[in-house]
Amino acid sequence: xxxxxxxxxxxxxxxxxxxxxxxxxxxxxxxxxxxxxxxxxxxxxxxxxxxxxxxxxxxxxxxxxxxxxxxxxxxxxxxxxxxxxxxxxxxxxxxxxxxxxxxxxxxxxxxxxxxxxxxxxxxxxxxxxxxxxxxxxxxxxxxxxxxxxxxxxxxxxxxxxxxx
Length: 164
Prior knowledge:
- This protein is of the alpha/beta class.
- It has five helices and four strands, in the order βαβαβαβαα.
- It has one domain (3-163): 3-Layer(aba) Sandwich (Rossmann fold).
- Strand 3 (83-86), helix 3 (89-93) and strand 4 (104-107) form a beta-alpha-beta unit.
């Protein structure tokens, strides 16, 4: 059974998109039955071009990404999530909708790379460093025995990963 993971950030334009891309990429490479999605509480309507560039530079297909509301994941017919991960502090502080199936919820905070100093070069560097940090955590998630862990065990493991 596919493990569905939803990454949340306020605008669904950078960190959540990087997370979705990294998890889907590594799940495919490692032949894991995991599917990532991303959304925001107040989607900006566009993906930050530096996020798409960081994914593309790492060899990932960036077609099909779009900024979307978390409402899409509580609607009829939405995939049921096993895990919901907030990746920005503001999204972590917001009241979330009711998620069908009571998924495990955890916060993996990352600084907003779109606020990096140094013009475009500084932003490119910050997006790449954020992509790599996300990749490190995503690989740890994929090494977990997701099919056999209880939600309590999964919660504890994901919280440990957030500390690394």
